[in-house]
Amino acid sequence: MAEKREDIKHSKNLGTVGMILQPFLIYYIIRFITVVLLTYLVTITVQKAGGAVETLFAEQKATVNAIIGGIAMLAGILPMFSDFRREVKNDNKCNYEKKKDKNNCHEINNNKVNNNVCNAGMVRTLFRILITITLAFASSIAINILFISFRLTENSASYSQVAAHQYGVFFPIGLFLYGVVSPLAEEIVFRGILYNRMKKMISAALSLVLSALLFGLYHGNTVQAAYGFLMGMLIAYTYEKCGDFLYAFLFHAAANISVYVITGSTVLYEWFITWQKGILLAGISVMLLLFLHFRDSFRGCKEK
Predict the structure, then answer these.
(1) Which of 61, 70, 162, 215 could form a disulfide with 177 if both were Cys (CB 3.0 to 4.6 A apart)?
(2) Are 162 and 221 in contact (CB under 8 A)?
(3) DSSP letters along the chain, please?
């Protein structure tokens, strides 16, 4: 009897792990298949066209590959969009109920008071957006300065290959892919679905760490894995405190754009990437995190 109970418990645990990892695996597999198919189709088409088309493809190979990668990301999230909407809706509903309980469900009938409440809500939203973008900028650049200072990026051949590929992309296209498409797709998978799903089964703190760990491992090489893990925790924490998926996306987008623009420009790189700026930006990041943690009125309806 005891063995049977253990078997049932083991099967339940495996089912839980499977349910958590399923979105990640589906996204990864569809993304991989799409990349392979599109790369094959593009290669065949270019070979048949030959001449100037083949020459142009050779010159813009990094850009073409980046576009294929972006399309593959979007293809990967399509079958999970209903799951994403359901998880985010459930999370928002939970937040609303907690806020409703906290505020004792007071109904406001006076139009003037209603307008004041709406205006205050808009100001809080704009303030949250400003805090999110500032924290994303400061923390992403500070972490990059730390990695560069310890020569982690310089000593990683796999990271160097990825960086060379990213900065070989036509800048406006790269900015759109790395600043919009990539953050949207990855946030839907890792925070929208995985993180929210984990919170139903384990604590928010453990969900934050585990979802960030998966996010880091997803990026492959050691440098990006470490960076992804740290940023994944910051994104999830901001999402948890602000209580809306919008802030997870904004954080990721702002961080990607900041790093892509600054490390891709010689002038900006030389001005920002110094240990003095690193200390300053790290200090700003810590202050903003403390602000998020201790300011009750900023937490929205999240209370874990």
Answers:
(1) 70
(2) yes
(3) -HHHHHHHHHHHHHHHHHHHHHHHHHHHHHHHHHHHHHHHHHHHHHHHH-HHHHHHHHHTHHHHHHHHHHHHHHHHHGGGHHHHHHHHHHHHHHHHHHHHHHTTT-----HHHHHHHHHHHHHHHHHHHHHHHHHHHHHHHHHHHHHHHTTTTTT-HHHHHHHHHHTTS-HHHHHHIIIIIHHHHHHIIIIIIIIHHHHTTS-HHHHHHHHHHHHHHHT-SHHHHHHHHHHHHHHHHHHHHH-SHHHHHHHHHHHHHHHHHHHH-HHHHHHH-SHHHHHHHHHHHHHHHHHHHH-GGGSTT---
Global pTM reads 0.87
Per the structure, how many domains does the chain have? Answer: 1
Range of the domain at 126: 80-298
Contact 160, 153 (CB under 8 A): yes
Over residues 29-65, the pLDDT tens digits come to 999 999 999 999 999 999 999 888 899 999 999 999 9
Does 15 reside within a domain?
A: no
Q: Say which residue the tokens 């990539």 belong to.
A: 182
Distances (CA, A) of 26 to 31, 215, 272: 8, 15, 39
Q: What's the token pair of residue 43?
A: 């290669």
Residue 3 covered by a domain:
no
pLDDT digits (tens, 9 = 90+) for 92-123: 766 655 555 544 444 444 555 566 656 777 88
8 lies in some domain: no
